[in-house]
Amino acid sequence: MVVDIVVGVLSFFGTVFVFLAAVGMVRMPDTYLRISVTTKAATLGIGLLLIAGAIYSYDLAITAKVMAIILFILLTAPVSAHLIGRTSYFAGVKLWKDSIMDDLDGKYDKNTQELSSGEEDEKDIKGSKKDKAVD
């Protein structure tokens, strides 16, 4: 009885998060927001559904497989979302028109395809000050 309630609650919340991911995929205005919403909500929703399945099965082998799948999703989903977002930015996919700031603006050279962190300028400034002090 208690197990059925726990499985039902986990399944319900897992379904809600997967549904929110689907809605976010349709409603978000640009690629970057879609990636963000989908990755977080779908990862949590799928994890909850898998845990519900493991509890329902009450089998150690299935539980071990579920834990391995959850670990795999937790490791790969953020990395793949980051790579999709980075590739989209470098390919020239525009931000939403109402986006407040672009953190990578001016840090990516399209000719060399190099991304700078912005610290290179500070090092150059410090290096030039040291050069002047030596002179």
TrEMBL record:
<dbReference type="Pfam" id="PF03334">
    <property type="entry name" value="PhaG_MnhG_YufB"/>
</dbReference>
<feature type="transmembrane region" description="Helical">
    <location>
        <begin position="37"/>
        <end position="56"/>
    </location>
</feature>
<feature type="transmembrane region" description="Helical">
    <location>
        <begin position="62"/>
        <end position="84"/>
    </location>
</feature>
<keyword id="KW-0812">Transmembrane</keyword>
<dbReference type="InterPro" id="IPR005133">
    <property type="entry name" value="PhaG_MnhG_YufB"/>
</dbReference>
<feature type="compositionally biased region" description="Basic and acidic residues">
    <location>
        <begin position="123"/>
        <end position="135"/>
    </location>
</feature>
<feature type="transmembrane region" description="Helical">
    <location>
        <begin position="6"/>
        <end position="25"/>
    </location>
</feature>
<dbReference type="GO" id="GO:0015385">
    <property type="term" value="F:sodium:proton antiporter activity"/>
</dbReference>
<protein>
    <submittedName>
        <fullName>Monovalent cation/H(+) antiporter subunit G</fullName>
    </submittedName>
</protein>
<keyword id="KW-0472">Membrane</keyword>
<keyword id="KW-1133">Transmembrane helix</keyword>
<feature type="region of interest" description="Disordered">
    <location>
        <begin position="104"/>
        <end position="135"/>
    </location>
</feature>
